Design the sequence.
């Protein structure tokens, strides 16, 4: 993206500091900024690893007081020597920027693969892919347009969002498998969180959602796997494609460490769910056996919440 208009604006300033809203910056640029600008403080950090701040720093300006909630930021003139000192100390922000760049690379590669596959939906001659719909839905959360606070709120808000984006499909919540002439006893669950289907029901999509907020990590992880198994079962009986969406503010779901042979290892280290998975709470005998391998790719909603989407 070309940031030269904003750099020219900075150079024209006669004072040593200015404050801007994100909207004002976009007006100067003449186009919207990346959605990452609304998600991550690291995007505004004084680090040359991001293209906007790289150009800002090269002019002798630095950023301060980025506020994602109010969508404001300040800039001030400073010496290049002091800029280098700040960058050396700011290791945490550097790590955040690196993670952000990895996420953006993952999205680019994923989107390239999607463009070479059959679209999930076609609306007004436009090809639509579910993963990109979720990216857009998440951007609404990041920008404060949509509020989520528990699993039910995610389910409700996502259904509303999907009805607007895919008006040619029925979109229903908590629909029992019996509605599709399926035997309940053959499934690990009975109700589908969100189901999308066309008039003839020859195209059907199921969505399962998890938004854990408690510290009951291994049990919650097992429930993730149950939902994924449910989606595998629905795929086997004729659903077109299914999707699993997880969001959580709990970093224990995406940490780096996990004891070998435990559910933590699959979530934190391998970042892939497959094979027989047991519920490790107490003396529980619950288990599921996943037929496929399902990769976890955590992406950021903001500085505290992450999410991933799986196509089943």
Sequence:
């Amino acid at each position: 993206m070309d940031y030269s208009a904003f750099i020219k604006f900075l150079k024209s300033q006669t004072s040593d500091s200015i404050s801007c809203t994100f909207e004002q910056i976009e007006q100067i640029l003449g186009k919207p900024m990346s959605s990452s600008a609304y998600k991550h403080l690291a995007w505004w950090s004084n680090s040359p690893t991001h293209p906007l701040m790289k150009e800002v720093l090269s002019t002798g300006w630095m950023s301060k007081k980025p506020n994602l909630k109010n969508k404001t930021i300040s800039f001030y003139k400073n010496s290049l020597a002091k800029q280098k000192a700040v960058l050396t100390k700011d290791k945490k922000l550097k790590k955040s920027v690196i993670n952000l760049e990895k996420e953006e690379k993952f999205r680019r590669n994923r989107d390239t693969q999607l463009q070479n596959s059959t679209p999930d939906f076609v609306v007004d001659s436009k090809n639509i892919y579910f993963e990109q719909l979720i990216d857009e839905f998440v951007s609404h959360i990041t920008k404060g347009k949509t509020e989520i606070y528990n699993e039910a709120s995610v389910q409700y808000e996502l259904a509303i969002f999907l009805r607007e984006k895919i008006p040619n499909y029925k979109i229903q919540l908590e629909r029992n498998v019996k509605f599709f002439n399926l035997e309940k006893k053959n499934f690990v669950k009975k109700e589908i969180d969100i189901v999308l289907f066309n008039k003839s029901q020859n195209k059907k999509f199921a969505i399962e959602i998890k938004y854990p907020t408690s510290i009951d990590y291994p049990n919650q992880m097992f429930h993730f796997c149950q939902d994924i198994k449910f989606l595998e079962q629905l795929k086997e009986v004729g659903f077109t494609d299914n999707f699993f969406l997880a969001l959580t503010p709990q970093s224990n779901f995406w940490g780096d460490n996990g004891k070998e042979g435990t559910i933590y290892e699959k979530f934190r280290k391998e970042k892939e769910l497959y094979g027989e998975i047991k519920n490790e709470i107490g003396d529980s005998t619950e288990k599921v056996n996943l037929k496929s391998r399902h990769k976890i790719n955590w992406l950021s909603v903001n500085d505290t919440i992450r999410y991933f989407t799986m196509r089943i």
Summary: The longest helix spans residues 91-115. The mean pLDDT is 88. The radius of gyration is 22 Å.
